[in-house]
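Justification of resources, computational component.

The compute hours requested in this renewal are based largely on the per-chain cost of generating structure records like the one below. Each record pairs the submitted sequence with a full structure-token output. That output is archived, and it is also reused by downstream analysis tasks.
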Amino acid sequence: MGRSWHLLVAAIICLCSLSGCLGGAPLDYHYSAEDAEGAVSSEGIDDQLFNVTLTGQGATDMKFSSLVVVVTQDGASYRCLPEGEGGNCTVTQPSGSDDALWEEGETLTVSESGTDICGRTCILTFSINGPSGTQTTGPTVLTLN
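The structure output for this chain reads:
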């Protein structure tokens, strides 16, 4: 019984030390953002608002269909989804080699889609969420001119 007890204790200790490794840390995505070229108009409902680029800081490419951008302007929130999936604003992929992925170094464009979110100059707060189990880090406030 003594030897069996020691083997059981050793197995439990070994499994407990691996518990953090089995789940793994969430993927960590980083991005940069900048005002889209061209001025937003006070009458427009299809203005390009800003561009976001996935930067290569340890993450892999992100599944594009899992991407959700939430823009807040003057207390109102707008859900921006990939083009063709609805939402108050859209996220488009003007470049990249795989339309199913937001690839490292690829720049996406966030635009109004039938809603006047920003007229002339405004300050937007936004968040970018990806697939379950990921963390997304980048700027949260952008001034548009």
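The two ends are 76 Å apart (CA to CA). The chain is about 15% helix and 40% strand.
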